From TrEMBL:
The lineage of its organism: Eukaryota, Viridiplantae, Streptophyta, Embryophyta, Tracheophyta. It is found in: Secreted. Residues 23-42 are annotated as: Disordered. Keywords: Leucine-rich repeat, Repeat, Secreted, Signal. Gene3D superfamilies: Ribonuclease Inhibitor. The keyword Ubl conjugation does not apply. Its main location: secreted. InterPro entries: Leu-rich_rpt, LRR_dom_sf, LRR_extensin-like_regulator. This is Uncharacterized protein. PANTHER family: LEUCINE-RICH REPEAT EXTENSIN-LIKE PROTEIN 3-RELATED, LEUCINE-RICH REPEAT-CONTAINING N-TERMINAL PLANT-TYPE DOMAIN-CONTAINING PROTEIN. It comes from the Eukaryota. It comes from Ficus carica (Common fig). It holds the Pfam family LRR_1. GO terms for cellular component: extracellular region.
Length: 438
């Protein structure tokens, strides 16, 4: 016991006295190249103004010329016949010729026609039910549509390639519907989509590699049945700002290519999959990331020293994995640390700075193997875990620090800053883990 204690003290002294700047390596690799922007087409700002503004575009009772009126009225009546459950009585308003007045329909001036068109559908929470509510057939008959939101309905059916003929379409929310089968690859043909939300459906199988090449800001595919590894080669191509893969059955490792997304990625959730292997050091390139969550997987190995470069990080969750080793002190010096949860792993040491975060309630290390701290795993459980020799491939990469750590930590004066950190706004990606809309 006393030799263990000595070892522990020696290590914590080592950990706490390594001066922050020392870890920087002069020859450290530069940030990986993100996918070149050349050749990307995206209407910026969108052709139509953002969703909320569309409401002002509702014309009065006498609508004047309405784009594609006959077609829209026809498909609306077909959908209305198919809807057998309409608890909020949307379809009761779907009468007459002015579709701009229908509940859930929003009009605006069609960009290139100077005529009023159906720009947005908002069926969020309508809870339409019916034997076959055919999403694709419906939307294909709304030629001017830009935004389609249908959270918590019973839309279903295959999505065909011609969805790419909807030239203004940029925002798709089909979350919490009943879409079965494989990934709706044809959605990827709508190349101007900046918002893709297909969470809470019954999709299964692999996700196609080109999903991460599409030019989208928001990509929510959580709570489906996706399995197999995350496509490693293309993953880092994603220009998504908000990305959720949570609550699926992805296995394999977190692709090192993630580092290439450093310019854009702010929030990423790998939570609750079956990911294995060690954390790639390339995660440390994500200098803009505020949320990194890989909790409840089968990840192992230590936390790479590169995590000390995540200078924007507010929320870190690595709980319920098989991670081990010392918790890097540089992680606990990150200036925006707000909620770092590392509980239910096999971490063995925390240094002085991390202890301050524990005291402040910012760092949670319950149920680890940290000698001398309360609420740890039993010695027997820790013993059992460490009886197996554990290594990571590319061990040497765990000490790579691709930033100037002393600069990152400069604003963090000895724990005093802790009290000044106000609660950050709740992350958007965590809101996406709720079935219904906020
Ligand atoms: C639905 O709305 C329409 C039009 O507002 C109304 O006439 C009808 O009575 C409503 N139906 C129910 C069941 O509330
Ligand atoms: C659009 O149409 C309105 C009348 O419908 C007209 O006053 C206006 O000049 C037109 N704008 C353009 C850019 O053609
Ligand atoms: C909508 O789908 C859910 C889930 O499959 C089902 O339980 C419900 O009965 C459906 N509602 C209607 C009205 O079809
Ligand atoms: C309505 O139901 C019919 C019969 O199942 C189906 O062929 C059609 O595609 C559906 N249309 C829409 C808009 O849901
Ligand atoms: C995407 O937007 C560009 C630029 O506005 C447009 O030229 C192109 O046709 C759109 N692509 C699709 C598939 O609608
Ligand atoms: C991932 O799971 C699939 C079954 O869904 C299995 O065939 C494959 O070997 C697994 N791959 C890895 C890397 O674990
Ligand atoms: C901190 O994060 C963990 C894991 O995501 C979560 O369970 C917990 O509720 C969070 N605590 C606060 C105070 O936000
Ligand atoms: C790292 O930051 C420190 C403090 O700002 C500075 O003195 C030093 O020159 C920087 N080193 C490099 C390699 O940029």
């Amino acid at each position: 016991m006393s030799s263990l204690l000595t070892l522990f003290i020696t290590l914590s002294i080592l950990l706490s006295t390594s001066s922050p700047g020392v870890l920087s390596q002069p020859g450290c690799p530069p940030p990986p190249r993100p996918r070149p922007l050349i050749g990307r087409v995206r209407p910026r700002p969108p052709l139509y103004p953002p969703g909320l503004k569309l409401m002002g575009g509702r014309p009065p009772n006498n609508p004047g010329p309405l784009s594609n009126r006959a077609r829209i009225l026809f498909i609306t009546q077909e959908l209305k016949r198919n809807i057998t459950y309409d608890p909020f009585n949307y379809t009761g308003t779907w009468v007459g010729n002015n579709y701009c007045l229908f509940k859930g329909y929003f009009c605006d001036t069609v960009p290139d026609l100077n005529i009023t068109g159906l720009a947005s559908i908002d069926f969020n929470g309508a809870r339409f039910g019916g034997r076959f509510l055919n999403f694709y057939r419906f939307i294909r008959n709304l030629p001017d549509i830009a935004i389609f939101h249908a959270n918590s309905n019973n839309f279903t059916g295959p999505i065909y390639r011609n969805i790419n003929l909807l030239r203004y379409f940029y925002e798709l929310d089909l979350s919490n519907n009943r879409f079965p089968g494989g990934f709706p690859s044809n959605v990827l043909g709508a190349t101007n989509l900046t918002f893709v939300d297909i969470r809470f459906n019954q999709y299964a199988g692999s996700v196609p590699a080109r999903l991460f090449n599409i030019d989208t800001d928001v990509l929510f595919i959580n709570n489906n049945g996706f399995r197999n590894p995350i496509p490693a080669a293309t993953f880092g191509n994603t220009p998504a700002i908000y990305l959720t893969l949570a609550n699926n059955h992805f296995n394999g490792t977190i692709p090192p290519s993630i580092g290439r997304a450093w310019r854009t990625l702010r929030e990423v959730l790998f939570l609750n999959n079956r990911l294995t292997g060690c954390l790639p050091y390339e995660i440390g390139y994500l200098v803009g990331a505020t949320v990194f969550d890989a909790g409840s997987n089968l990840l192992t190995g230590p936390i790479p020293q590169s995590f000390g470069c995540l200078r924007s990080l507010q929320f870190l969750n690595l709980a319920h994995n098989l991670l081990y080793g010392p918790i890097p002190e540089s992680l606990c010096r990150l200036p925006n640390a707000y909620n770092f949860t590392l509980s239910y792993n096999y971490f063995t040491q925390v240094g002085v700075q991390c202890r301050k975060l524990i005291t402040a309630g910012t760092l949670n290390v319950r149920r680890n193997c940290i000698f001398g701290l309360p609420n740890q795993k039993s010695a027997a459980e820790c013993d059992r875990f460490f009886r197996t020799a554990r290594t990571c491939p590319l061990e040497s990469t765990f000490s790579i620090v691709p930033c100037n750590i002393s600069t990152v930590a400069a604003s963090f004066v000895d724990g005093r800053k802790l009290k000044e950190i106000a609660a950050p706004p709740p992350p958007r990606t965590y809101a996406a883990l709720e079935k219904a809309h906020r």
